[in-house]
Amino acid sequence: MKTRQTRDQVAVEYTWNLDDLFASQAAWEQELDEIISQLPAVTAFKGQLHTGAETLLACLEAKEAIEVRANLAATYARLRSSEDGTNPQNQANSARVGDVVSRLNAELSFVPSEILALPDGTIEKFLQEEPGLAPFRKSLSDLLETKPYRLSAETEASLAALGEVFGAPYTIYQRGKLSDMSFAPVQDGAGAERPVSFALFEADYEMSADTTLRRAAYESFSNTLAAYQNSFAAVYATEVKKQTVLSRLRGFETVTDMLLHTQQVTLDMYHNILDIIGTELAPHMRRYAKLKARELGLEKLKFCDLKAPLDPEFSPPITIEEAGRLIQSALQVMGPEYSAIMEKALNERWIDYVDNVGKSTGAFCTTPYGNHSYILITWSGNMRSAFTLAHELGHCGHFTLATREQSYTNSRPSLYFIEAPSTINELLLGQHIMAQSDDPRLKRWVILQLMNTYYHNFVTHLLEGRMQRKVYEAAQNDVPLTAKKLSEWKGQVLAEFWGDAVELDEAASLTWMRQPHYYMGLYPYTYAAGLTASTAMAASIKEEGQPAVDRWLEVLKAGGTLKPLELMQKAGVDMSQPQPIRDAVAYVGSLVDELERLF
């Protein structure tokens, strides 16, 4: 049986180079000490912000400088932990940087508290008096919007000091998932024994054409999840309780209101995504499930068969190098500035490709201000991995441009927009491959890849969002969150969406345990929001060409200078209306129509 590699066995060229952040553990530790030593440069302004615009500017600049350094240090620790969560040094680093960040947040909490204590009109007066404050206008305006929900300076400082404690549910979830869980090996259709891990199941076995392997791996995976369900439920319940209590302390009507407030998203925008896609996409996806059952020769499509490939023989293996060249070619439409970022990312070790013991599952991209992006994926050697890489490179391109053009304070847009720049790359990759060939089988195969993208965002994450809505409604009414309840709600959400097209077992209801997104507020639904916008934008680029590309690049460079609705409107997509959502759903329906015709 092939065993998983340990971190030191992975070929260096397929790992990211964290020396670009800090040359050594010692250099990182020294930076933490220096960050703490620089705190007085900010805290010296305590009690002084009312004295004038120049003082406020000096304080904000000093605060931003130390936050940039702390972000780099925290990113280093997080990436080390992501590459191997079993390493004791990495675990210790995470704890240490958590202490430092909590201390920083506590000691710097006087800044927003003093700003909010200023008489009405003072900030606008300061902005007029001091041109240097212009880069802080948006963040100051956003801060003033939180005034009704701000607590006393002492309380805010106390809450900030508890930052590491508040982050404990996520830390415990990740530690349990990556370091403690083990899965029984299984046999594939040829009788060979295969190891099972979170990464192997989600990036490989779940999408295997080998039904024996796929179903056996699902059973092994689900059995381990079931053994941890009560512990994970308690951890998640703590996360939700934390958010619910904070929302009440701050005076929000509901916890949902609090979480959407930070995203600058209205309740209508939130519910539109969940309701329209949840109900109007379901008939299309049920047709897709029935098509899959028929083509796979299955009497009934089980939940564990949903990601089984159609026509797997046609999808040849693709190497990391081949995928890089294909993606670069597909994204040339974005112009030389964007393409140069892609080339550097692919050739200068910004990406960590290979699975190893303790490595984080899934994929992500992080771009610490003042440094380059770092991408984590688990390469499976199939075209789905290429689409995942294109997705993460979309985040890379976005934040490279945003951090290049904007200050640290203005570099991050709302979560509501975050997934648009990533998913558009998947759509552009699909368009590019189809444009290169008239082969109907190739076209069919590309449509299947695009369906994977829509499945991931419009089904997996959208249904997470619909479950979250149930969870927060229950929490608002003080309903206890137990493993039984969470599984019951997840089962309901799945049954409402799939109807009789998919056979749902008890293990399907445990999928609330699989995603870290539940520990990130109302994040899951934003995947669907982002893909809705990128669907519209990809169509515009195809129809208009350069004018649409120029609009899109300007939006990427805008970073966090605009609210999400304004940002998308700048690109030409009005997310205040249901039409873009319905257009995206209709597009998915057209893909299913085409598949029914081609199979």
From TrEMBL:
Residues 208-585 form the Peptidase M3A/M3B catalytic domain. Binds 1 zinc ion. One of its GO terms (molecular function) is metalloendopeptidase activity. Residues 114-183 form the Oligopeptidase F N-terminal domain. The keyword Hydrolase applies. The gene is pepF. Its EC number is 3.4.24.-. It comes from Brevibacillus agri. PANTHER family: PROTEASE M3 THIMET OLIGOPEPTIDASE-RELATED, SIMILAR TO OLIGOENDOPEPTIDASE. It is an enzyme of class 3 (hydrolase). Its cofactor is Zn(2+). This is Oligopeptidase F. Keywords: Hydrolase, Metal-binding, Metalloprotease, Protease, Zinc. Has oligopeptidase activity and degrades a variety of small bioactive peptides. The keyword Transmembrane does not apply. Belongs to the peptidase M3B family. GO terms for biological process: peptide metabolic process; proteolysis. Pfam families: Peptidase_M3 (PF01432), Peptidase_M3_N (PF08439).
